Amino acid sequence: MTVLLITGTSTDVGKTVVTAAVAAAAMANGRSVAVCKPGQTGVAVGEPGDLAEIQRLSGVTRTLELARYPDPLAPDTAARRAGLPELTLAETAAAVDSLTDADLVLVEGAGGLLVRLGDFTLLDLAQKLGAPVLLVTAAGLGTLNHTELTTRALQSAGVRCQGLVIGSWPAEPDLAAECNRIDLPRVSGVDLVGSVPQGAGGWERARFIAAAPGWFEPAWSPFR
Description:
Helices cover about 35% and strands about 25% of the residues. By secondary structure, it is of the alpha/beta class.
């Protein structure tokens, strides 16, 4: 089993769609995939959350959500407001380990790297599992600072970054986006391994899974 954690430089950078794309690319290569979302926020019980969207886009069938909180806040804050138990690092790591029958286990965080999922962050979970992190970044202004801050935090913690993925690449990129595509690897020291077209999250499954493998560099693999 290979575990890959997926985080973003902030919220709304495209983590869920990138997670679906990694899953689709791995399954296109004949690998089995499971996806874990430890804490889902901003969604009521019975409503479709991020895992439902990943399943819709990629066709992955093995998913695991550990906790759900109604307020669209960081999971620890949302748990306290709802009067519900916070997730713990130990139970979350054990849940990921329970998915050992899959070739690849993807774990999607909430917001950025240091958002608290309970009594821990995704960075803590990566250390606990000894697993690398794939970082989803934005294309436009501000992404260089956010990306370098995040990759420095990973490096300081001794957690390997598997690469950068631009979560939403515009159909008509402006000057900042074009420059950032060159500068992101330079300032972070991490390879840019993929980019997802803007709006791909609204595609039908057949189109999504056919295109997803082509969004990543040929030499990149989640198993490395």
